[in-house]
Structures are given as C-alpha cells and as structure tokens.
User: Which sequence fits this backbone?
C-alpha cells in the first residue's frame, strides 16, 4: 500500500518524545536518522543511539487526513504551530523483497564470503558463512565489521580459541570457526544477541564449537589466543582492562567500531599491555590490532 512520510528535525533530547507524539497521531512507524549523515556505528544490541541533530521520520497510511495530523502535532508544546516539517508521498513497493534483492554475497579477504541464505554461494569451495539479518546486529555491510572479517581471514586460526566480545549476530565468532578456529566464545550484554548467535551458528553447523555467555555470567578466568571486539570507542576505552585480560600472553587483539579520529585515545588505553600494530582505515573507520606483551 502507498504511504505518506513526514520528516521532522529534532535533537537527541527530544526525539523519543517526538516519536511518542507521532505514534499518538497515527504513525505506523517512526525512525531516527542523523541529520548530517555522519558515519555512526551500528548500535549495541538493544540500544537506541541518537545524534545531536536528528531527523525523525514517520510513515502514515496514505488515507490519513494529513491536515488533521499536522494540527494534532502543532497542538503539542514540543513542536508548536509553526514547526518545520516535510511531507512526501512514498511509492508502493514490496520493500522486504526489494531489500532482499539488493543484499548480495560479500567477500572479505582472500577466502571468506558472507552469504544470505536466499542466494547461491559464488564459490562453493570458499569459506562461506550463511547469515541473514535478524535479531541482532552484524551482517558484514558496515565498514567496521568488514575490517574485522578481513583481519580474521588473514590469520592462521588453526587450533586457536577466539573470543568475540560484543558478539551481536555472532558473525565474527562464526567466521573464525569456519576459517579453522578450534573454539569460539561469544560474549554480549543482550540475551537477544546470544539467541541470534546460537541460531546463526546452528545454521552454519558450528554450534558445537561456539560457547556463548551473557557478560554478567562469563567465567572470571576466561582466556583466548585471539580476542576481537567490534563495539564502540567509548566502551573499548572503558573496558580496556577487562578486554585485555581475556587475551593470552602473546595473543592477538583486534578492535574496531572506532572512528579514525578516535584511534589515538583507544590506543592509549591498550598500549601498556599490547604492542600495537599499524592502524588500518576504511571509510572513516579504523581497526586497531596488537600483540599482548608477555607477563
């Protein structure tokens, strides 16, 4: 069915309240978008991330009385009668089908492919991870995920144990197992991410090699040969001690979810215990890797 879209500009402080007002006025969906289209990392599972200047975009049934809707919105003190807005007609499409048609297998490094289940794998002899977007974040489309997958593809993972800290969809842990790791451990704060990781591992026939923990339940003595964390610069800095402690001496560490201009502060948090390697950048984001110093 066709839709009418209303776009309003707001702020992080007011966007949630504005969403409630739009829903009350009959909106069938409300989404938030960075007004300046700055690169912003995928939110942590279960988290809503807003920006300093936020567009609030709502969809209404095409049969809605938009004059009545606008009057209803104008009656709220948050907006007022002269609030700035843009109304657009959205064409009728099968959006889920269009999205599926545009989601293609993606190659990372030399041998690793991430493939949606509804498409044929381009190279049956490659390392193919079957993954559909679903309950949690991480499909390989974001530059930070791409940087992590390319790094894993470059490593010799045979007989290695890998920890995926902030596992989300489980994409990195599953890729590590398909690339030859002996065992992978996924850790996340969100039960939904644990469920998604388990389901995706099962789809890829590696569930028997993947152990999953909510962060609050992870064993205190947990260690791995390789630790990878694709979250955000702030949590990476705050959790440097905890993440570093998961890495065996001489083990490898990979960090992403970091804007290039944030790299220095993240490196500072880790360089006391890790020998940091050259930074790799992609589309304004970067990957920091290092080797843990011997005790």
Assistant:
């Amino acid at each position: 069915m066709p839709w009418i879209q209303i776009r309003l500009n707001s702020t992080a402080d007011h966007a949630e309240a504005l969403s409630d007002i739009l829903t009350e006025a009959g909106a069938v969906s409300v989404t938030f978008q960075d007004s300046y289209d700055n690169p912003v990392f995928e939110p942590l599972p279960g988290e809503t991330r807003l920006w300093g200047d936020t567009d609030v975009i709502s969809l209404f049934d095409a049969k809605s009385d938009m004059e009545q809707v606008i009057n209803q919105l104008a009656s709220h003190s948050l907006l007022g009668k002269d609030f700035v807005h843009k109304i657009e007609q959205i064409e009728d499409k099968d959006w889920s089908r269009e999205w599926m048609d545009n989601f293609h297998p993606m190659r990372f490094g030399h041998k690793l492919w991430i493939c949606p289940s509804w498409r044929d794998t381009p190279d049956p002899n490659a390392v193919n991870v079957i993954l559909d977007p679903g309950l949690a974040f991480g499909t390989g489309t974001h530059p930070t995920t791409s940087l992590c997958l390319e790094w894993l593809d470059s490593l010799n993972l045979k007989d290695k144990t890998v920890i995926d800290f902030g596992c989300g969809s489980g994409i990195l842990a599953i890729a590590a197992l398909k690339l030859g790791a002996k065992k992978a451990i996924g850790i996340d704060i969100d039960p939904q991410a644990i469920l998604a990781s388990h389901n995706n591992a099962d789809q890829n026939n590696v569930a028997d090699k993947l152990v999953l923990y909510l962060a609050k339940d992870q064993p205190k003595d947990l260690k791995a040969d390789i630790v990878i964390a694709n979250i955000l610069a702030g949590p990476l800095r705050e959790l440097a001690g905890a993440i570093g402690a998961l890495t065996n001496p001489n083990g490898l560490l990979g960090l992403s979810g970091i804007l290039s201009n944030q790299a220095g502060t993240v490196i500072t948090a880790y360089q006391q215990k890790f020998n940091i390697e050259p930074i790799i950048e992609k589309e304004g984001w970067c990957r920091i890797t290092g080797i843990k110093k011997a005790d």
About this structure: The radius of gyration is 22 Å. Residues 191-203 form the longest helix (13 residues). Residues 3-92 form a domain with the Alpha-Beta Plaits fold (CATH 3.30.70). DSSP finds nine helices and 15 strands in the chain.
